[in-house]
Amino acid sequence: MKRFCRIALVAALALWMPWTAAHADSATDFDRARTLYENTMYVQAMDLFQSLPQYKSDALVDGYVCLCSIKLQVPGYEDRALEYLQDYHTTTLGREIHLCLASDYFEKERYADALKHYVQAGNADLAGHMEAEYLFKKGYCRYMLDGKDVGAWDCFAAAEKFPSNDYTAPSQYLMGYIRYCDADFAQAAEWFEKSSVDERFSSISQYYIVVCRYQMKDYDYVLQYGEPMLENLPEDRK
Fold first, then answer.
1. CA of 7: how far to CAs of 3, 15, 20, 229, in Å?
2. Roughly what angle, to the nearest 10 degrees, separates helices 59-72 and 94-107?
3. What confidence score (pLDDT) does residue 91 get?
4. What's 237's DSSP letter?
């Protein structure tokens, strides 16, 4: 009887060990694929994710394949991502896919689609620089869809409060422009002063500062700074 039990145990181990090894290999390949993804090596990551045995049956693996397909603009990536969100909307990667789609639509100026996914993703627990980007882009979508949307101002104001980053000056400039369009030239000039510190917005901000000062009847300022600025002004602003 003892000999039979030993034989049964050996047989069971013989069946279990290959499965365990395969499972370990799969886990190792998954970690390797995720590392490739995190290092923006999307082609290699997608190939490895699709080679895993749990591909098309595991929400996490399929989610990463969706993300890779968006990053690589693989034909049909939108349908793949939307289908994933419908089937696995509560999964770990669901929110990341919403953000990835939103960013993709934003770059393509599909602001209504981008805003939809920004809203669905939300900004809870995002790292500081990521939240600033999220708020600015969400606000920009709102502004482009409706220049009078107060939600746009709120997003820019929230983004502007983060420590200086790539979205600080754009937020300040657009807040200045919103106030300029509202004919609130004093406050507009204040925001343009802030955005003018960033070389990306220096020229255009200084132009609007002079225009605001003119509207405020500060002619001494206009004479002092306006004439030198006009010499370097593009024809479409003269």
1. 6, 13, 20, 92
2. 10
3. 83
4. G
Whole-number pLDDT of residue 89: 78
Q: Which two tokens stand for residue 161?
A: 């409060």
Alpha carbon distance 16, 146 (integer Å): 62
The Cα 69–Cα 37 span in angstroms is: 11
What's the mean per-residue pLDDT of the chain? 88
Q: Using CA atoms, how far apart are residues 147 and 142, in angstroms rounded to an integer?
A: 7
Q: Which residue has the tokens 């009847």?
A: 217
Give yes or no for residue 3 having a pLDDT over 60.
Answer: no
**pLDDT average, residue stretch 161-189:** 97
Name the packing angle between helices 59-72 and 42-51 (round to 10°). Answer: 150
Sign, CA torsion 32/34/40/43: positive
What CATH number was assigned to the domain covering residues 1-122? 1.25.40
* Domain range list for the chain: 1-122, 148-238
Distances (CA, A) of 80 to 58, 63, 99, 101, 127: 15, 10, 15, 11, 27
Asked whether 134 and 123 are in contact (CB, 8 A), the reply is: yes
Measure the CA–CA gap between 214 and 151, rounded to whole angstroms.
29
Q: Within a 10 A sphere around the Cβ of 227, how many other Cβ atoms?
A: 10
Most confident of 49-58, 119-128, 168-177, 228-237: 168-177
Compute φ and ψ for 27, nearest 5 degrees: -65, -40
* CA 166 remoteness from chain centre: 13
Band of the pLDDT at 229, cuts 50, 70, 90? confident
Report d(CA 150, CA 64) in Å as an integer: 36
